């Protein structure tokens, strides 16, 4: 009978779990293999999980037990607590050194064809031709849902190089100098939460002369279109600081903030803006002035700014053989670029306002308390119909504070028979929408006005509200600020889509500004909250000059601190001297 000998027990004198390293002999065969620790309280879940093995460690588990709890029926993995110390299991992994460099994945498609099923990606033609996932393989009764074999989805397919259109970047409306300091950055989603209710304003001054609106323009249809004429009139768009009436009011300290309705409407409708803009802010003592730059974005009218694919300016061309060569723009830009359309829309708006009033009595023109403050004695051309109303809005939150804003508002005409315009009755603002080419890039899916404006006006209006949401919102806000009772919007189109010099008036719509703002979902309380927030930011800053810039490619506005000579002739002279110094140094 063979004798039984008890195997030697390797005790660990340090009290740790496992044998002591000193107890192994020098020729121990597992001496160079690392040890994976685990806790005695943990259960041994599985020796090997064949469904969760990579190609690298699958060979390591070849000798492991196959009786573990690795996978369930159908290759589904059973969830359970991981073994303590499993994070160091990669120490036992086998790594390919020479084979990995020559390995490449050729195809990861399933080996067999999949027919039918919930996904419907088998034989369904709607998925391959029209982009419709519910093809004939997925749903037996799908012929009625997929007319023309997927044609219902064909109109929504992405166009040629749409990925490049979305990647186009715009330039900022003002050159950001490296010396400017960013003081605040506000995202648009933060502006949406602001609210401030403002009471009815107080009228301080009224200047200018108004002509009556010609009501025959309300009866124009596409069959009785009228040519848009070129009318030589003078209309001013002077910035806040250069307004003599505002200077007089500021000397009396009637308000804290001074601005115009054009600038204020851009700030109140900032969340809808896509194109870049900038507002120059001057802090003098306890007064704040919101100004615009000459030749800036406030002097023109945008076109289809909110369209899915808005009009674009031609890209700057460079010489790849000479990177140092200055980029050049094309000599004759197309008539449907963003800049050309903006100039065309500005021309249409001015002439439509000049043309749609009656300058020969009756009815007579109405003079406000004071004449036009910008019309000098040396001017020879006649003035356009325009009235300026200087109004005070109270933005105070508590009774202890006094934060008021003085706004110069504009009205374009008065409607005969609706009261006395000298006291603010029957006032109207006049604007114009323009159609350029419904098939051109940037048209935003607009229907043809000549065929749809009379029969399907709702479709035309809905498209314009979508493509020009920011512009229409600003017009509504300007009319409400001015206290106008009517907003006249003309529909002006080109005589031919390839000629941007001749236009015709197809129709004119009339609406109440407050109702139109509600239809556009414009919240005046949110706009006043934005104005009050920007005012509080400026009042916290020391005296000086600042600029509020809308990022050209992101829904963000930033407040910069700029030198006092910025945007003036002195600033341009200093830049010219620096350039001359650099040239002389070279």
From TrEMBL:
<dbReference type="GO" id="GO:0098808">
    <property type="term" value="F:mRNA cap binding"/>
</dbReference>
<dbReference type="GO" id="GO:0033290">
    <property type="term" value="C:eukaryotic 48S preinitiation complex"/>
</dbReference>
<feature type="compositionally biased region" description="Polar residues">
    <location>
        <begin position="301"/>
        <end position="333"/>
    </location>
</feature>
<dbReference type="GO" id="GO:0005852">
    <property type="term" value="C:eukaryotic translation initiation factor 3 complex"/>
</dbReference>
<comment type="similarity">
    <text>Belongs to the eIF-3 subunit D family.</text>
</comment>
<feature type="compositionally biased region" description="Gly residues">
    <location>
        <begin position="114"/>
        <end position="154"/>
    </location>
</feature>
<dbReference type="Pfam" id="PF05091">
    <property type="entry name" value="eIF-3_zeta"/>
</dbReference>
<feature type="compositionally biased region" description="Basic and acidic residues">
    <location>
        <begin position="159"/>
        <end position="168"/>
    </location>
</feature>
<feature type="region of interest" description="Disordered">
    <location>
        <begin position="105"/>
        <end position="168"/>
    </location>
</feature>
<keyword id="KW-0396">Initiation factor</keyword>
<keyword id="KW-0963">Cytoplasm</keyword>
<feature type="compositionally biased region" description="Gly residues">
    <location>
        <begin position="65"/>
        <end position="74"/>
    </location>
</feature>
<dbReference type="InterPro" id="IPR007783">
    <property type="entry name" value="eIF3d"/>
</dbReference>
<feature type="region of interest" description="Disordered">
    <location>
        <begin position="300"/>
        <end position="333"/>
    </location>
</feature>
<protein>
    <recommendedName>
        <fullName>Eukaryotic translation initiation factor 3 subunit D</fullName>
    </recommendedName>
</protein>
<keyword id="KW-0694">RNA-binding</keyword>
<dbReference type="GO" id="GO:0016282">
    <property type="term" value="C:eukaryotic 43S preinitiation complex"/>
</dbReference>
<keyword id="KW-0648">Protein biosynthesis</keyword>
<feature type="region of interest" description="Disordered">
    <location>
        <begin position="1"/>
        <end position="23"/>
    </location>
</feature>
<dbReference type="GO" id="GO:0002191">
    <property type="term" value="P:cap-dependent translational initiation"/>
</dbReference>
<comment type="function">
    <text>mRNA cap-binding component of the eukaryotic translation initiation factor 3 (eIF-3) complex, which is involved in protein synthesis of a specialized repertoire of mRNAs and, together with other initiation factors, stimulates binding of mRNA and methionyl-tRNAi to the 40S ribosome. The eIF-3 complex specifically targets and initiates translation of a subset of mRNAs involved in cell proliferation. In the eIF-3 complex, eif3d specifically recognizes and binds the 7-methylguanosine cap of a subset of mRNAs.</text>
</comment>
<dbReference type="GO" id="GO:0001732">
    <property type="term" value="P:formation of cytoplasmic translation initiation complex"/>
</dbReference>
<feature type="region of interest" description="RNA gate">
    <location>
        <begin position="297"/>
        <end position="311"/>
    </location>
</feature>
<feature type="region of interest" description="Disordered">
    <location>
        <begin position="54"/>
        <end position="84"/>
    </location>
</feature>
<comment type="subunit">
    <text>Component of the eukaryotic translation initiation factor 3 (eIF-3) complex.</text>
</comment>
<dbReference type="GO" id="GO:0003743">
    <property type="term" value="F:translation initiation factor activity"/>
</dbReference>
